[in-house]
Predict the 3D structure of the following.
Amino acid sequence: MWTVFVCLLLGVPAANADVVGSIFITGHDPDFHAFLGGNSSGAQHINQAAINFVMDPAFNTFAAGGIKKFLFVECDTCAVPGGHTDGVTGMTLSAGGYPVGTTFETHGAADGLAAELLLLGTKYSAIVVGSDFGGMLTQDELDILNAHQTDIIGFLNAGGGLYGISEGAPAPYALTSHDRWGFLPFVTTEAPKNQGESGFTVTPFGAGLGLVNGDINGNASHSVFTGTFGLSIVDTDPVGDILSLAGRGKVTTGGVVPEPGSALLFGTSLLLLAGRFAFRKKA
């Protein structure tokens, strides 16, 4: 009976009073490491968890309406310099874990990015921004994204999703140089911090997204966040610096105002799942 109760609760759509945006941002660069590196499966799992979170139809208005495509932003016409890779390869390798029917299109500055951003909510239910070290996000793409800050925030507040991947590696490696995360102006990172992934830890919130410690170790990461901005911490490095954040709420230029209903449902679900496992163990 307990199991039935849990399943019924988890099957109830989120009772959020207001439409909210879904955001997942990370200092890892799993667009690169899903294809190259010591732990490609872990990087793929990060991509999968992030895409599933921002495109969850229980919260994403556009995915619920049948729009199953996301816009992947990077320079798809640039020559790929050493130390980088075409992020499309990593995203494609990760695609096995995406919701059924999900596909994506890639657009950069020279390939219609500005026009495609105006199709958020009609053609795309989410936007995925590639990394600037490892992946192929250049300053040209970042400038366009930043110029469309109002459009992107409006899209999120209409129920869309955004997954942003690491920006801010040290020169000369990064393909961007300034105004990083300007399309989410409240996001700030430390001075460039490259580090091998060892001893990184998933939080209970991150575990609730399906991630384990094995997913976030074994490659490299390139930036850490200086705050939470109204989001929840997904994972940290050995000294407690924030590697990834995710959450849902009303997006403003000053941060995210969490949506109480979804947070309560998520926390209650975790508690009930824990109770179910404890009950099963006693039995």
Notes: The chain has one domain: 17-269. The chain has a mean pLDDT of 85.
